[in-house]
Amino acid sequence: MCICCRKRLKQKELFRLKTQNTKIELFDGNGRSFYICKECFDSDKIVMSLIKLKKTPKDKNIIKEQVEEIRSKWQKLD
């Protein structure tokens, strides 16, 4: 289930991320994670949803930078 829009989708259709040391990262198999759908990941509403999560930075600009970094990593993987 996407943490932004609460849509129930298959895990293959969702991005899996985690927070570690107040940084948002791709899930590497360790720790707790959360899922975000492609629609929410590409929109700006992801920032407000991530601010609500525990152990994430509370500054919108920092979150936007981290999301852009993750987007570029995903594009390289595809």
- Give the termini separation: 22 Å
What's the overall average pLDDT, rounded?
88
Number of strands: 3
Give the biggest beta sheet: 3 strands, antiparallel
Number of domains: 1
Helix content: 25-40%
Number of DSSP helices? 3
The best one-word shape is globular
Give the structural class.
alpha+beta
Percent of residues in β-strands: 15-25%
Radius of gyration, Cα only, in angstroms? 12 Å
Record the strand order, biggest sheet: 2-1-3
Order of helices and strands: EEEHHH
- Which consecutive residue ranges, at least 5 long each, have pLDDT under 50? none
Helix and strand topology:
Blueprint: E1 14-20, E2 23-26, E3 34-37, H1 38-42, H2 45-51, H3 60-77
Antiparallel strand pairs: 1-2, 1-3
Description:
It is a single chain. The model has no long low-confidence stretch (mean pLDDT 88). The longest helix is centred in the C-terminal third of the chain and has 18 residues, at 60-77. This protein has helices at 38-42, 45-51, 60-77; strands at 14-20, 23-26, 34-37. The chain has a three-stranded antiparallel β-sheet. Helix 2 (45-51) packs across helix 3 (60-77). It is of the alpha+beta class and 78 residues long. The protein is built from three helices and three strands; from the N terminus they run E-E-E-H-H-H. Strand 1 (14-20) and strand 2 (23-26) form a beta hairpin. The chain has one domain (11-77).
